[in-house]
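Question (not urgent): is this output format expected?
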Amino acid sequence: MKGTALSALFAAATLLASPVFAADDLCALNLQKIDDNMATLNATSEGLEKSLDEHVADAKAAQAKGDNTKCIEITSKVLLRLDKTDKGTSSGS
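Got this back:
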């Protein structure tokens, strides 16, 4: 009986801790996706690249402070903008 209660308690603790690790992973994953997209993006304007670099710097600063929610918020917006930019250049080909 005690073993089952301990197992359930351990499982609950693991589930509660999981979002913290997932947020950290998502922040790092988004930053990697941005780096990959920036390296392969066709004909980005200098202004766009500078703007995206500033947002990436903000996201990395948030990550360094441990504010993964802010990092994910910033990187998600950057990825959306990169996706829109990439679709805009590929559809014009």
